Amino acid sequence: MTINGQLVSFVPSTDLDVSEMFYVDTLGFRAISRDAFALVIDGGDGAVVRITLVQSRGETGYTALGWRVTDLDATVDRLRERGVEFVRYNGMDQDDHDAWTAPDGLRVAWFRDPHSNVLSLMGS
Q1: Which of 2, 71, 73, 74 has the most crowded CB, counting CB atoms within 10 A?
Q2: Span 7-55: which CATH code?
Q3: What is the predicted pLDDT for the residue at 66?
Q4: What percent of the chain has pLDDT over 90?
Q5: Is-above-0.85 flag for pTM?
Q6: Phi (first) and psi of residue 12, to 5 degrees
Q7: What burial letters (b/e) apply to 80-114, b meaning 16+ CB within 10 Å?
Q8: Residues 1-40: tens digit of each pLDDT
Q9: Domain map of the chain by residue range?
């Protein structure tokens, strides 16, 4: 490996208060720090996610962050109870938990944060 260190993910936000309500209050991640420029959370298993304040953001359409979970259905159900809406894509054969099954058997379900960043859950 040519770079030694912990990988940090970045997600844009136009409103850190809204992002904090979603990532900390709704999704349940632990806030590590917050200043005028970013909200930093523990994204799970010590993975650092820096939610960075931007003036505007373009529509991306691709997945910005994803989590591998042990029980996708239970995780989807818990997030739905907290008001998270999952995305259904035209042409994708998605099941009752809005999950698509990849050719290798991995299931993926997508949702968006308040700033339209696409997030995903992967599991069985």
Answers
A1: 73
A2: 3.10.180.10
A3: 96
A4: 86
A5: yes
A6: -80, 150
A7: eeeebebeeeeeeebeebbbbeeeeeebbbbbebe
A8: 577 778 899 999 999 999 999 999 999 999 999 999 999 9
A9: 7-55, 62-124
SS3 (DSSP) at 8: strand
Residues 12, 14, 15, 18, Cα dihedral to 10°: -60
Q: What share of the chain is helix, strand, coil (3-state, %, to 5)?
A: 15, 35, 45
- Segment 85-104 mean pLDDT: 96
CATH class of 62-124: alpha beta
Topology agreement, domain 7-55 and domain 62-124: yes
- Do residues 64 and 54 touch, judged by C-beta distance below 8 A? no
81: enclosing H helix or E strand: helix 72-81
Containing 121, the helix (H) or strand (E) segment is strand 118-123
Of how many residues is the chain composed?
A: 124
The residue type found at 32 is: I
